[in-house]
Specification:
- Keywords: ATP-binding, Cell inner membrane, Cell membrane, Kinase, Membrane, Nucleotide-binding, Transferase, Transmembrane, Transmembrane helix, Ubiquinone, Ubiquinone biosynthesis.
- With 544 residues, the chain is an alpha+beta fold.
- It has four domains: 92 residues, no CATH class; 212 residues, Orthogonal Bundle (Transferase(Phosphotransferase), domain 1), CATH 1.10.510; 123 residues, no CATH class; 67 residues.
- Helix content is 59%, strand content 7%.
- It is built from 20 helices and eleven strands.
- Strands 1, 2, 3, 4 and 6 form a five-stranded antiparallel β-sheet that branches. A four-stranded mixed β-sheet has the order 5-10-9-7. The protein has a two-stranded antiparallel ribbon with strand order 8-11.
- Helix 1 runs antiparallel to helix 3, helix 7 packs antiparallel against helix 8 and helix 14 packs antiparallel against helix 15.
- The longest helix has 55 residues.
- The model has no long low-confidence stretch (mean pLDDT 78).
């Protein structure tokens, strides 16, 4: 382990102990050694003993930087796993992280624009509207038309901090893979690599702008989701300018209720948006924490989601979508046999897995969760149980689905906050059944014909010429095959002739040696010359 990694690891331990996070660990056999080790670091005292647990946890994650803040953002959506005081504090990590200096932010913006802010914007507000782990946001107005906009600027010098933590995560992942063989199926190095790619991509605001434009186009004229307009003329790697929106934070249940929002429909539409992005578009928002989601004030009976911060998006290929949909439908239909078979067919578990035992294990985990409202079950707990099942059958983690799994946890957390009675399964099942019917039923054939029709219409006039060219090429290929076969036959004949002459020469040479040892006159010399002649003919035949 390098010195820089040791130093970073020490800082992580120091921050945890300075905020007294070790005191939040329960006292049992599993945590006995951490408590013993903590006493060995007697010089690292808890400096925030007067603060609440949630506040200490939030401040510690904030001090450690963006990698840890992202982790806290994810935890903030799981109010089923944490008490309200901790969840409320973690929620502040979504858009109320300690901002960096506004003068420095303005300098970064002007460097990206190539001139003073006042050249393009009026009413630039030095006080940030929001501040998160990667960037912070300032408000202004476009000088050309007075439209309200927000300017998102990346925190300066953030890349080295991320790279330092990622290196440490790689080191720990390799250690785990090396010394815990059973952890290899979790593919920790591949998971860290996916997380690294996600974080590095989030630092490029040109990529985020492109993602937002794509998602806005996917839901164009669709009332369930609105994505703010991006002003690409001001785009830069560390700056993005987009339309300012006004809405109610999705975690502000009191505000939504006062506005008369239909919370049940809002929660159902959240599930619909997720599955539409995954299965229809193969392009989904993978950072759906409450700080990035708002609800429009307009039409509370027919609510519209507003999605921000498209820095992290996920994609699935056709095979992943098909496999995922079939698995989910099998779960919804309680067809655990098919779930087990799909896992074997896809290679997620070894091919020699006992399907009967695997089916029984899955049924044991999943059967209790059905026919219950979302408020009475926790998908997080189900995942823990499935993890235990996976250990028994050597199931491997699929890194390309890590973002999807995280987003699904976000969706569940939001649904739990908005409408605890929401049945996640019943809301998603009709969508998946409709998607599958369009993939494998008569509708799939019609869609394929519709998709290929323009190409066929363009190609049809050229069909006679294409048929003629195909026949001519077929004839030429056939002639080449005949020529190659004849050349092969001739080559075989030549090789046989060479072997025969070499054999004759060897026989004559052996005969000459026998005659010579028996003191026969003249004949040995004649046999030797004949042998050389046979070899000469063989050499000439081989070089034709």
């Amino acid at each position: 382990m390098r010195f820089s990694e040791i130093r970073r690891l020490y800082k992580i331990v120091r921050v945890h102990l300075h905020y007294g996070l070790d005191e939040m660990l329960p006292k049992n056999k599993l945590t006995r050694w951490p408590h013993v080790m903590r006493r060995g670091l007697f010089w690292l005292k808890n400096k925030h003993a007067n603060k609440e647990d949630g506040s200490r946890l939030r401040l510690a994650l904030q001090d450690l930087g963006p990698v840890w803040i992202k982790f806290g953002q994810m935890l903030s959506t799981r109010r089923d796993l944490f008490p309200d005081d901790i969840a409320d504090q973690l929620a502040l990590l979504q858009d109320q992280v300690q901002p960096f200096d506004s003068e420095l932010a303005k300098q970064e913006i002007e460097k990206a624009l190539g001139g003073p802010v006042e050249k393009w914007f009026d009413d630039f507000n030095m006080t940030p509207l929001a501040s998160a782990s990667i960037a912070q946001v300032h408000t202004a107005r476009l000088r050309e038309n007075g439209r309200e906009v927000v300017l998102k600027v990346i925190r300066p010098d953030i890349l080295p901090v991320i790279q330092s933590d990622i290196k440490l995560m790689y080191r720990m992942a390799r250690v785990i893979s090396r010394f815990l063989p059973e952890a290899r199926r979790l593919r920790p190095v591949e998971v860290v690599r996916e997380y690294e790619k996600t974080l590095i991509n989030e630092l490029d605001l040109l990529r985020e702008a492109a993602n937002a434009i794509q998602m806005r186009r996917n839901f164009d004229n669709n009332p369930i989701l609105y994505v703010p307009e991006v002003f690409s003329d001001f785009g830069h790697k560390n700056l993005m300018v987009s339309e300012r929106i006004y809405g109610i934070g999705v975690s502000d249940i009191d505000g939504l209720t006062k506005n008369g929002t239909n919370l049940k429909l809002l929660a159902e539409r959240g599930v619909e948006i997720f599955f539409t992005q995954v299965f229809r578009d193969s392009f989904f928002h993978a950072d759906m924490h409450p700080g990035n989601l708002f609800v429009s004030y307009d039409n509370p009976d027919d609510p519209t989601w507003i999605g921000l911060d498209c820095g992290i998006v996920g994609t699935l290929n056709r095979e992943d979508k098909r496999y995922l949909a079939e698995n989910l439908l099998a779960f919804f239909n309680r067809d655990y046999r098919k779930v087990a078979e799909l896992h074997v067919d896809s290679g997620w578990v070894p091919s020699d897995t006992n399907v009967d035992e695997f089916e029984f294990a899955i049924r044991t985990v999943c059967e209790p969760i059905f026919e219950k409202p979302l408020g009475e079950i926790s998908f997080g707990h189900v995942l823990v149980n499935l993890f235990s099942t996976a250990r028994q059958f050597n199931m491997e983690v699929q890194p390309q689905l890590v973002l999807l799994e995280k987003t699904l946890l976000y969706v569940e957390g939001l649904g739990r906050q908005l409408y605890p009675q929401l049945d996640l399964w019943e809301t998603a099942k009709p969508f998946l059944e409709d998607w599958m019917s369009r993939q494998v039923g008569p509708q799939a054939v019609l869609n394929a014909i519709k998709e290929k029709a323009p190409f066929w219409a363009e190609t049809l006039p050229e069909l006679p010429e294409l048929v003629y060219d195909s026949l001519r090429q077929g004839k030429m290929v056939s002639q080449r095959m005949d020529d190659m076969y004849q050349a092969f036959i001739d080559g075989r004949r030549q090789q046989n002739r060479v072997r025969f002459l070499l054999g004759v020469g060897a026989s004559l040479l052996l005969t000459a040696a026998i005659l010579y040892t028996n003191h026969v006159e003249t004949l040995p010399e004649l046999a030797g010359v004949s042998a050389l002649g046979a070899w000469l003919f063989a050499w000439r035949a081989a070089n034709k």
